[in-house]
Structure formats: structure tokens, C-alpha cells
Amino acid sequence: MSATASDAAGRFRIRWSARLRLTLLYGALFLVSGATLLAVTYLLVVQSPASKGTKITTGNASRNPAVQEVSAQISYVADRQRQEAQRTLLTRSGIALGVMTGVSGGLGWLVAGRVLRPVRVMTERARRISAHNLHERLAMPGPADDELKNLGDTFDGLLARLDAAFDAQRRFVANASHELRTPLTLQRTVIEVALSKPDPDVKALRGVCERALSIGEDQERLIEALLTLASSQSGVFRTEPLDLADVVTDVLDTLMPTQPEDVALEVKLDPAATEGNSSLVERLVTNLVGNAQRYTNPGGWIRVTTNLQGGVPTVRVVNSGPVVPRDAIPSLYQPFQRLGHRSARHDGHGLGLSIVAAVASAHRARIVTEQGPEGGLDITVAFPRRKEGLFGVPVP
User: Fold this and answer.
1) How many beta carbons lie within 10 A of that of residue 382, not counting itself?
2) Which PROSITE patterns match (predicted)?
3) Among 52, 82, 277, 387, which is most buried by a count of CB atoms within 10 Å?
4) Using the 8-state DSSP alphabet, how is residue 323 labeled?
5) If DSSP codes are grouped into helix, strand and coil, which group holds residue 254?
């Protein structure tokens, strides 16, 4: 019995849709407005001089008791008629108000349906869009300043960004899989070639092992770069006060053994205080300098500077080298994109500048990349200023 009652209650449950709420709102507004108008009209009628009646005067005849009695009866009848007219006015006005409230509710239901029709269209189209057809759009018609069209255009912009993000993610996964598979295939080939020989000597086996270790180290560098890129894009890390000059000094001390002897290194480090994650900022500088070392021709130069430009802490790396087309510069910050110059010192994985872009984005830093004065690239990364407390003392 209880189950039947529960089913019946579920069938007759009111669905408080937006259309129903708008209809009730329209009806309530009309009812309140009509009731207010009715009350004001009734008060004006009651307070009018005609509704208060007139005093009957009979001159000297008013001293006659018979005349006074007739006058009183006339006044009584007039008052009763006036009260009856007021009650009739109030009753009929109330009935008219109730009827018009019902009519306004029906009209409100139709108007709410027409107003919400674009929302229903957007809902139906949005339900058909999934990860497999993100290229579809709502494409809502209407004037440019229409709120519902603006909502549809905003949703279309969101779909466009999601579509681009999905495509970038697919390309990244495909490229990462290819990059990880290549050294594994090479490692397997080296080992199979060594094992295919009937009597390999110790020197040959040693060379194979060294080659396999070198390939394994290359895999480790690739995996470390992928992890750094992922952690930078997540943006979840702790920040601390740091000086870009100190970070660049530590990076150059580490990279000096790999600095080509035929490439001049010019360093000018002025204090540039900012906030950030020291490990990620150090990786950013390492990739910038490493990229410059890789693509600087023999006899070229590299300049590394830190300073405050208009109070903004910046690090700048400029190198000579092959000319980079201006329209190709934005693509360098995409994962697995390489310049492809034959003059490169050694091949990288194409993740260096993409990690730079991810770290800069996580620190709300701005990257400006231009063609170098003698080929190569001129890259400037401007970090946010360090937050300061009272009296200009940096907040720890």
C-alpha cells in the first residue's frame, strides 16, 4: 500500500521548471499590481464627496418632527445604497482581478515558453556534443547584444578551447609515445645485433652495453622532461622569494662543463627579486641556456642577463645562430617541435621551450621572443614583482 502511495506521489510531483517559476512570478506580479490598483481605486471611491452623501436641509420645516423623520429615512436609504454600491464595486473588482490573474498566468506560461525556447535549443544541442564531436557549435541566432546569444557564443568559445585542448593532448600523447618508443626500438636493435654474432668478444659486448646505457640515459632525460612539463602545467607548487641572478649563477655553474669552447659566453647579472618555485625557475633558465648552446654556431656567442626593466624582474638569453623565421617562433613553444637546423650540437626532444612556456605560465610570467640580431633567438622572460608588506619589506 505504501509503495502504491509512493508511486502515486512520484507521478503527481510538481516539476519546478524555470518555465513554471517564471509563470508563477508573472502571475504573482500581476496579482500584486492588480490588488494594489483595486485597493487604491476603492479608497478613492470611498473617500470621494459623492460617496459620503449630502446633508438634506429643509429650512424652517426641519423643526417639524414629521419632516425630520422623512429626512432621516432618506439619509438612511441613501447610505444603504452607497454601501451596497461600494460592496458591489469591491466584489466585482475582486472577481475581475481573479479572472485576469488566471489569464495572466496562461499568458505568462506562453511568454515564458517563448523566452526559454533558445535555452531549450542550447540544451538539446549541448547534449549532442561530446568528446567525439567538439567541432560542433551551438551557433545561436540573434542580435549581438542579446543576452542568450552572448551565452551561446560564450559556450561556443568554451567548446573551441576544449577542442583545441583535446587536439593538443592527442598530439602530445602520440608524440610522447613515438619519442619513448624510438629509444626502446634502438636499444632492442643494438642488443639483437650483438646477440646475432656467433662469437662476440668482450670489447664488442662492452660497446653494446655502453650504447644501451647511453640510450637509457636519453630515455631518463625524456621522462624527466615530461614529468617537469606535467608538474609545470598543473600549477600546484609552493613559491618562495628568490633572485633571478642567483638562479642563473647556479645554472651556469652546472652548465659550464658543457659550454662549447668555440662559443663566447657573456654574462651580466643584476639583482632581480621575484617569487616562484626555485626548482622550476632553475629548469626554465637551464632550458633557455641549453637551447642557446645547442643552436649557436661555432664562433658564435651567448648573452645571459638579469635585471629590473621598469621594476619588473627579467631574465634574458640571446644567442647568435641560424636565422629563425618569425612565423615559426610560436610553434617552438609547442611540445616536440624542433628547429631542425643541421648546425645543432646534438638533437633534443623538442620539449625545452615547451617547458619554458609551461613554467612561465605557472608563474604568471610573460615571454617575449624575437629574432636575434645575428640570427638565433632573443628570449626575455618577465616575472611578477615580489610581494611587499609594510615599509617595503618583502613578505617571506
Assistant:
1) 20
2) HAMP, HIS_KIN
3) 277
4) B
5) helix
Predicted confidence (pLDDT) per residue in 44-55, tens digit: 777 766 655 555
For residue 47, what are the contacts with CB-CB under 8 A and spacing of at least 6? none
- Sign of the torsion formed by the C-alpha atoms of 246, 251, 256 and 261: negative
pTM as predicted: 0.58
* Residue 160: all three cell numbers together: 573551441
CA-atom Rg of the chain in angstroms: 42
Which residues contact residue 180 at a Cβ distance below 8 angstroms, ignoring those fewer than 6 apart? 219, 222, 223
Measured between alpha carbons, how far is 385 from 382 in angstroms, rounded to an integer? 9
DSSP letter for 256, please.
G
Query: Which secondary-structure segment (H or E) carries 267?
Result: strand 264-269
pLDDT band at 342 (very low <50, low <70, confident <90, very high): very low
Alpha helices in the chain (DSSP H): 2-11, 18-47, 49-52, 65-128, 147-196, 202-234, 244-255, 278-294, 352-362
Q: Where are the alpha helices (DSSP H) in 48-64?
A: 49-52
